[in-house]
Amino acid sequence: MEDDNHLREHTHSSEEILNGKFLHAFRDTVTLPDGGSATREYFVHPGAVMVIPLLQDDAGQIRVVLERQFRYPIGQVMVEFPAGKLDAGETVQFCAQRELLEETGYTATEWARAGQMRPAIAYSTEFIDIWFARDLTPGAAKLDAGEFLEVFTATPEELLQWCQQGRVTDAKTLTGALWLQQVLQGSWPLQWGAALPMP
Amino acid sequence: MEDDNHLREHTHSSEEILNGKFLHAFRDTVTLPDGGSATREYFVHPGAVMVIPLLQDDAGQIRVVLERQFRYPIGQVMVEFPAGKLDAGETVQFCAQRELLEETGYTATEWARAGQMRPAIAYSTEFIDIWFARDLTPGAAKLDAGEFLEVFTATPEELLQWCQQGRVTDAKTLTGALWLQQVLQGSWPLQWGAALPMP
Description:
Two copies of one chain form a homodimer.
Chain A: E1 10-19, E2 24-31, E3 37-43, E4 48-56, E5 62-71, E6 76-80, E7 83-85, H1 92-104, E8 107-117, E9 128-137, E10 149-154, H2 156-165, H3 171-184, E11 193-194
Parallel strand pairs in A: 4-9
Antiparallel strand pairs in A: 1-2, 2-3, 4-5, 4-7, 5-6, 5-10, 8-9, 8-11
């Protein structure tokens, strides 16, 4: 990678400015590349995982599992791939398996890590690890208290059409659509592995 | 669209919990679909615009204009499409033209709106409007004080390879890569219009 020293900022001091139930924010004073100083405010996030779950219907056509969920900051029901935050001490693959089970009821025997995305690089430390799951078995979802969502399936073509039309605007799901298309056309091959044992 | 009343949450009360220089956060009490109550914490954001600027080299090959910028919450230099926040009262197309000029020095005679994305639907009201620009003329960038970034160009194939390899992880730029690929292969046609007059 290129030498980044002429772009890099260095932490001078840091203070917590919000310790909410969910949001934790800091204000740091930083030294700029030219020696000047500036303020950076950001939210510290534990990280998250998104799952792109692949089903095959009776005719052999691939379908993906999606959710419809009301997102309060947006004021709308959003179409999304299953996703959730990491619990303390949890590996990303375990989190992926747990969130798929809790939100959709599905378990999968095969898993592949695709990559990572950063949703809001200007003001959040959040990463979302991107996983594919296949060989799915349906079961009962185990939603958290206060969590309401609907699970449904769609073809990759339907998902892409919704991305074009603006019915899908969630950035993680748009990124998932990019990965899905590249994987299905064979351009971005995945390395599949076994599911981790779940308790 | 489907009836969403069984998923929808309603605001009961709202309080500001952070009034920072950049971050403004609220904690709302909401009524859940089953009549229960819950807390929602979120950032209020003015909205932003991302530009996918298309160049053609001497051989007629398309290239896109990209930036390398240090992102403090991530601690890394990120590869991104040009983007920036809306100023008060500004239209999204004007913001797109202004940010492209300020950050890269380019002006474009033709503009097309592609769609919108929502970077962090769990905790931010932010939207990013996605625009394409073509027929570019280079000029001098006008960076804000404390803003340091490098402008460069790449082919769409290079950008997609970086998305696959994890060199591009910014969610807006990954979403831009999806749009770019679909537009260049003719699947998602754009409606081009003229640039707005700039002061």
